[in-house]
């Protein structure tokens, strides 16, 4: 029995008294839990024959809880006759010094009070304790399953249950009512006993076991990635369920240049193109097996990545865009870009390279790594000149001395024409 002592004055108004004790006037608390205040001694005035004085709210108790009261009386020569009225309709005469009451309704949902049949002064000191009703289990459904399944547990006295243990592994239940709870199965194996632990740490064996079932052994059926002739290949298969460790074996790989180890990893360098039909078997430690067929496509060796477009000659700023092409048909892996140091010289949109400044434009083509295929990259370089500046007066390549000579000749010609007109 776990006693948590609280003392209080018999004639303090209900709300004030419950505030002193830390009791709530709202919804019922978990069984016995709220009776945990520090000990208090409260003095009160003379008793009267008609006063009913509230002691505490019965909402702290649940069916089967054992409420324990003890009291002393001082400063009086004759103890008045006192009656303790429980919220469940029961009453007890306080002629002695202790009493126990087993709650027998859904909650003691009215105030517990004392009625005095005779006046008299004095100081009563009450101590209250509560012993949780022990939980019992009548059914566990289902009794077998795997981790993360949800069990329903039926029984009695579940108000104070705070944990369900699967062997030594705890799980926090959801209390549905005083007679039913649900709990999610934690990870575990084998057959384990169930037990309940209430809010005060009292353990109650449930009298039921839970049996962990072994999930079926399943080999992952995801498609294996393709391989390429002459390219190193590696791919790991996986399985789930059963009881580890697993061991793998395969047929259909001999003479292909590929092999699979007992851990399910396919490695090697394919020697010829084609389609391999592989049958893989996984076995667990309990001799359970699962077998599945896979198709492994081995592609012919792909040519090294290269540009198929040729950069234009005599490229100047503002020249027509250069359309870049490569010999790769793997568009998902292929990307085109310009070197970070060339971004003031050229830009690229899709396959079109635009020339925006003078300098060296470095264009990159890259195939990203995928499965057993390694990354590849190549680059082209284009020298970009400034845009051409038109010559003076539209005469290309004429020097200043040439311009002066041309001007003198024009003056001479004009003078000769005027002289001929004058002579005529």
Automatic annotation (TrEMBL):
Domain of life: Bacteria
Coiled coil: none
InterPro entries listed in its UniProt record: Cadherin-like_sf, Ig-like_fold, Ig_E-set, IPT_dom, IPTL_CTERM
UniProt domain IPT/TIG: residue ranges: 136-212
Residue spans crossing the bilayer: 398-416
Signal sequence coordinates: 1-29
Name of the protein described by the UniProt record: IPT/TIG domain-containing protein
Organism of this sequence: Ottowia thiooxydans
